[in-house]
Every structure is written in structure tokens, then in C-alpha cells.
Design a protein that fits this description.
The chain has 138 residues and is α+β, with helices and mostly antiparallel strands. The chain has helices at residues 6-18, 44-52, 60-68; strands at 27-32, 72-78, 100-103, 109-112, 120-125, 129-132. It is globular and about 50 Å long. The termini are far apart. The model has no long low-confidence stretch (mean pLDDT 79).
Length: 138
């Protein structure tokens, strides 16, 4: 059994901050495009005035919830086995690094990388991609 002490954990934590995660197997790594932050109002009168003016007011919690449920993102990495089985075995992949894609809402696994950075990523199967935007480049 591998023995791991706190010094090793701290060393690994420091290395993770500088490391680049990658997709493995048939998975894609997607950086969701965050929900646009609405105007925040701390007073009821301000909220009513902004709302009447046509501004959408979102709390930080609402924005975080909408971003987690986002279904649009940027492909940042493609696993080595993605699009190499089934129907697409000899065909062209649906997407590649840098594509803006539409994916199934709440699919795969969402995590913050590196831990504590605030940057969210989704890891999902290659067949969770529903579409992509043409003519939009980074």
C-alpha cells in the first residue's frame, strides 16, 4: 500500500496548480462559457428600477447555477480514443480543439481545475456533443 503523508499532499497540491489536465479515452474536455453576469442590486427600489428598464438582475448564486447548467462551451482537449469507435470509426470527428460546441445539459463530470482556481471544466463522452457553432473562432 502506498503511504502518503501531508508533505506529499502539499507537494502535489503545488504541482497541480501548474499542471495541464487532459482528456483521456473517448472523453472531451470542455470549458463552459459562463452565463453572462446580470446587474446585481442590493436595494429593492434599485431592483425594481433596473427590472423596469429591461435589465436582467442575477445574484451570484443564480449566475453560478446557470453556468453549471450551461450547454455551450469550448473544446479544450480531445481524448485519444474520441470518435474512433462505432459509426464514426472511419468518419470525421464532430468537433476538435477550439470548436464552440453545444452539449447535453448536465452531462459528464464538472470540476474546478486546478482546485481552488475558479475555472470550471466539463469532462464528457464524445457522443454528448449535440452540435457546434460554425463561423465562430477563438
Amino acid at each position: 500500500m502506498l503511504k502518503i503523508n501531508e508533505d506529499k499532499i502539499n507537494s502535489i497540491r503545488d504541482k497541480l496548480a501548474a499542471a495541464n489536465p487532459v482528456a483521456v479515452g473517448y472523453r472531451l474536455m470542455i470549458r463552459p462559457i459562463p452565463a453572462r453576469k446580470g446587474l446585481e442590486a442590493s436595494e429593492g427600489d434599485k431592483y425594481a428600477a433596473l427590472s423596469k428598464a429591461g435589465f436582467e438582475v442575477k445574484s451570484t448564486n443564480e449566475q453560478a447555477r446557470e453556468t453549471h447548467g450551461s450547454d455551450v462551451g469550448i473544446v479544450v482537449d480531445v481524448g485519444p480514443d474520441a470518435y474512433k469507435s462505432g459509426v464514426l470509426k472511419d468518419g470525421e470527428p464532430w468537433c476538435k480543439e477550439g470548436d464552440i460546441v453545444i452539449f447535453k445539459r448536465y452531462c459528464g463530470y464538472c470540476c474546478e481545475l486546478p482546485p481552488g482556481s475558479g475555472q470550471k471544466f466539463h469532462f464528457m463522452s464524445d457522443d454528448d456533443i449535440e452540435g457546434k457553432y460554425e463561423g465562430v473562432e477563438l
